[in-house]
Amino acid sequence: MNILILGDVMGLSGRKALKKHLFKIIKDNEIDFSIINGENAADDGKGITKEIAEEFFSLGIDVITSGNHIWDKVETTSYIEKEKRLLRPANLAEGSPGKGFGIFLSKDKKYKIGVINLMGNVFMRKTEDVFKVAKDITKKIALNKNVDFSVVDFHGEITSEKMAIGHFYDGLTTCVVGTHTHIPTADTRILDKGTAYQTDIGMCGDYNSVIGMNKENSLKRFFKDKEAVKHFPSEGEGTLSGLIVKAEAGSGLAKKVTRLVVGGALEK
Question: pTM to 2 decimals?
Answer without folding.
Answer: 0.97
